[in-house]
């Protein structure tokens, strides 16, 4: 089943077209990862799919409706996005920031209910940030802050979660913790996860579906086995990669690679 799809999508900044005639379907209740080189349009695509920015051509349809026509609060109950470089107001505490995730459920002047507090605490617990609840966000380390932003996205309790490079700033163990948490949310609660990842082996390991982009277009999409191949990586990143099979997950992994010089 597909709840979210795009057809012939064009996205521009001013005169400059970044995403060109792109069509995709996001498989429901699965994990999709988006890969591609710096500047190819991954964040731009993610922002348009979540209506953070408008698209100029084509259509994005969620549950049979053009996303552009969807009510803002309703949309925020369906999809949460963690941007690549999120920014919070100076002095805001972790608990306050995570509570913003409850905005789509608030009525009138928006007092938090017991249920809101319960979910905020759950989000702090599963991201390991409960300890920082009363600390200012700007006093945290990059990795701690990243986990707090993930907590805010989780507090939004949406069926679809979009994350733009969620493992940035995180050490190896915390990267795996976050990816495993997202995998658990997908498996136990059937949430649809769409994330941009630069680490190809993580993209391969955690994805049911991978989208490989180049210059605003999709070069290849499919399973890890279909996308993490020497041919696709050569086209997308101009690298000559040795691909093996991860003995623990049976997914393709990039063992080593070289740049293709003069290509
Ligand atoms: N707000 C903006 N205004 C104008 N141009 C922009 C804006 N945001 C991005 N761009 C340009 O659009 C192109 C795609 O940017 P985008 O952020 O989507 O790339 P990306 O694939 O996410 O790259 P990265 O891996 O570095 O995050 C880049 O050339 C960038 O300079
Ligand atoms: Mg980006």
UniProtKB/TrEMBL annotation:
UniProt GO BP: iron ion transport
Subcellular location: Cell membrane
Pfam families xref list: ABC_tran
Protein's membrane topology: Peripheral membrane protein
ABC transporter domain ranges (all copies): 4-240
GO molecular function: ATP binding; ATP hydrolysis activity
InterPro entries given in the database record: AAA+_ATPase, ABC_transporter-like_ATP-bd, ABC_transporter-like_CS, P-loop_NTPase, Siderophore_ABC-ATPase
Designated name of the protein: Iron complex transport system ATP-binding protein
């Amino acid at each position: 089943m597909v709840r979210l799809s795009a057809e012939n999508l064009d996205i521009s900044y001013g005169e400059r077209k970044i995403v060109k005639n792109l069509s995709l379907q996001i498989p429901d209740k699965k994990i999709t990862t988006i890969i591609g080189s710096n500047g190819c349009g991954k964040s731009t695509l993610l922002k348009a799919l979540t209506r953070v920015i408008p698209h100029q051509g084509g259509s994005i349809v969620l549950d049979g409706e053009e996303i552009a026509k969807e009510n803002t609060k309703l949309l925020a109950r369906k999809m949460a996005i963690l941007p690549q470089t999120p920014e919070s107001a100076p002095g805001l505490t972790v608990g306050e920031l995570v509570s913003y995730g409850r905005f789509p459920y608030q009525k009138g002047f928006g007092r938090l209910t017991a249920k809101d507090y319960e979910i905020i605490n759950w989000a702090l617990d599963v991201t390991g940030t409960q300890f920082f609840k009363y600390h200012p966000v700007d006093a945290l380390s990059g990795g701690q802050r990243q986990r707090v932003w993930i907590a805010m996205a989780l507090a939004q309790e949406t069926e679809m979660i979009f994350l733009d490079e969620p493992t940035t700033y995180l050490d190896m163990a915390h990267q795996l913790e976050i990816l495993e948490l997202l995998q658990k949310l997908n498996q136990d609660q059937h949430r649809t996860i769409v994330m941009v990842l630069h680490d190809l082996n993580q993209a391969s390991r955690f994805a049911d579906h991978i989208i490989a982009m180049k210059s605003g277009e999709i070069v290849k999409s499919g399973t890890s086995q279909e996308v993490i191949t020497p041919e696709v990586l050569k086209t997308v990143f101009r690298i000559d990669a040795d691909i093996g099979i991860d003995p623990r997950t049976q997914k393709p992994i990039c063992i080593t690679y070289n740049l293709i010089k003069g290509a």
